[in-house]
Amino acid sequence: MASLRVWPGTPYPLGASWDGEGTNFALFSEHATGVELCLYGRPEDAEESHRIDVVERTDLIWHAYLPDVRPGQLYGYRVHGPYEPEQGHRFNPNKLVLDPYAKAVTGQPRWDDSLFGYRVGDADADLSFDTRSSAGDMPKCAVVDPAFPWGDDRHPAVPWNRSVIYECHVRGLTMLHPGVPPELRGTYLGMASDPIIDHLLSLGVTAVELMPVHQFINDRVLVERGLTNYWGYNSIAFLAPDARYAAGGTRGTQVSEFKSMVKAFHRAGIEVILDVVYNHTGEGNHMGPTLSLRGVDNASYYRLSPENPRYHMDFTGTGNSLNVQHPRSVQLIFDSLRYWVNEMHVDGFRFDLAPVLARELFEVDRLAAFFDIMQQDPTLSQVKLIAEPWDVGEGGYQVGNFPVGWAEWNGVYRDSVRAFWQGDEGRLSDLASRISGSSDLYQASGRRTYASVNFVTAHDGFSLTDLVSYSHKHNEANGEDNRDGADDNRSANWGVEGPTDDAAVNELRWRMQRNFLATLVFSQGVRMLLGGDELGRTQWGNNNAYCQDNEISWVNWNLDAADRELLEFTRETLRIFRENPVFRRRGFFAGRPVRGGSKDVTWLHPSGREMTPADWDDGAQKAVGMLIDGEATDEVDERGRPVSGQTVLLLFNGGEASRRFVLPESGQAGVWEELVNTARPGRRVIPRSAVNLVGRSLILATRTSEPAGA
What we know:
The chain has 710 residues and is of the alpha/beta class. 20% of the residues lie in helices and 18% in strands.
């Protein structure tokens, strides 16, 4: 075995950094007593081609420079230190561990007992010590060349109030698309293909929110059941794009392919937002494997129980929580975020279980150091930041409590809109608050309408088609006896479960899908669509398809007539949104006169008069109108002049019976034109002073100069 030249190198940057001549390696470990850098020729190799003692240590960072190492080189670490689980230390140099700063990983571990630092099956097993090498079963890190021909690529920087976010999965969106070349399906390059981008542009999507693409692992229990961690909320390398979405190899090719995808989206004016999981890793609790952070420095990187450091604090329901009290853990998160913005050119992040990042002790502190650092960071404060504002710990539901500069998945919006359309009593005032921007949640803290990311469905739960087709979850394929996932759907309460030939039931289901989509698109705030909802995608009642990498989760592009109608309806509603700035307010409605003299928003009783407090308090009342004045905009043109929109009237009927709705006099010439009616297709001029609002339906109308009866 030929020897390699080893120079001292530098402690920064952390990770493996190719400078055009050689590679610098730097690994933080506060409690380690020694570090070995191991080089490999192939991903499956159990024996190192070289094992190098890293002797230089600066500021608790172990570092070395290898002038003979080039991009594509595979590597990992063996870290020496105390194996004292009851003190929180789980060093085991027999276990090859991934670099926390790895920019590429070759793939998945092959599940074997050798991956565990202890002897599996022993009594008090995690206190024992396993001496088998795990290298043959472990994926390897790869040195990457950061060079990429970005050209004039730039962030589209779509304003929040104009944003339409499309939540999707790299694999799921592309696997069944007939226009995507077979060899690119399920990959970053498949996402970047013309058929996918053309579809998104036809909808008016301004940002794709990709489900996790950080390198993640398949849980052993799933692999043993013949399943996989399809969603990817099990990160193991925060700087590495997942290798399974690469078309051309895993020694760094995944990095250039990811960059190619981003560049293609940017060329189309579409932003790329990543769903990121910094709250935990795939190593699980104290009984989990030793794959990376556990073997690098368990006590620094993970939140351990103060009473017994053998055990992990768990605010995530996954077994561990990252230790955001430790400066090096915080640094890892922020270095990762900046890497994805600066080197990979992404435009924003959605933070999974974001309150975990705010837990300084046990409580959620909205002014925690994490958010202070984010707000002051010159790079990260300028990208889109979206919180999933809940975790599983005490006090973890934090909708409305994130700082200025953050948007949130508005779970209150989802629940309120669903409750209204499923016919619950006493939900009118709640609906009004949600569709007008949720000022009750965000205004007092100085935030604006776009703090609310509105959604009706997301990856976690029923698809839109299933929401209106199933009263109960059907998760049998997950192998958990249908115990997983919440069984709380009441939107499909008309007595037929799943597909049916009953024309009346199908018509009601299609109408309900249109109700949800139209409500979402015409609400103030940021719109988020679940990818495939516009195509009638079904998961056959599975509302927790986290482990289903198959037709249950993949988008079916073979559309029937009803699917095509739903797609056209979605395109039309989003076109109306783009053309009328009254739907794109940044500030909240004030209920006061605007430039034209009328109130910015007026809430109407079906009789045509304004709603009264008694009307709002009437639990049986399920119909309301929302009149938005055309001057109720806060957009300006390129010269800073205010931009006017069209006055619109939104009519909602969440009850089963039809309601006669008297149309208001808007103070404008002409008559009302119906642009959208979820109970019937097409546009029409309304020739009379009242309209029949079918049960469980929505109408959007605007003023037109066309004479009545035309």
